[in-house]
Amino acid sequence: MNRAVRDRLGTRKASFAGPDETRELTGMEIGGVTPFGLPDGPPVWIDADVMCRARLVLGGGSRRRSWKVISTPELLTELPVD
User: Fold this and answer.
1) Cβ distance 79 to 69 under 8 Å?
2) Domain extent listing, the chain
3) What is the pLDDT of residues 14-48, one digit of tens each?
4) 45 and 5 Cβ atoms separated by less than 8 Å
């Protein structure tokens, strides 16, 4: 786990959720989790370098289907903020 994420969580150790917990929390499968369509609760943290890209290719919530969203980083600024 990235040090920046551990620091932001305020912990020394952190790990990714397993497949069942990921599906329960997001409704999506590991490898297909996208910031779009998340239920209320999970935060979305975006690295500043991502916002410097010319375009983004984001998954569409499934590994079994080839759903992709291709856009500029500004699309991420439209996500709901708590």
Assistant:
1) no
2) 3-78
3) 888 999 999 999 888 887 888 888 888 788 888 88
4) yes
> Can you tell me the distance from the alpha carbon of 66 to that of 62, in angstroms, rounded to the nearest whole number?
7
- What class does CATH assign to 3-78? alpha beta
Strand, helix or coil at 45?
coil
Give the separation between CA 51 and CA 76, rounded to whole angstroms: 9
Residue pLDDT, tens place only, 47-69 = 889 999 999 988 766 666 677 88
Q: Who's near 60: CB < 8 A, 6+ residues apart? A: 32, 34, 36, 67, 68, 69
